[in-house]
Amino acid sequence: MAAWRKSTRSANASACVEVAAGVGIRDSKAPAAHVEVGSGAWASFLGAVKRSG
Fold this sequence. Notes:
This protein is an alpha+beta fold. Helices cover about 25% and strands about 25% of the residues. Strands 1-2-3-4 form a four-stranded antiparallel β-sheet, with no helix packed on it.
């Protein structure tokens, strides 16, 4: 089973985006479904977020 975690920046614990390494991204309100994201795409996404400030 995947170890899902919420962002430390999530102010509202009931409406968060969660991530799991090697699995993807899901909405905490709908945990049964998730979007698969590869490690390269995830690294690109994080890099873009960090660059945007």
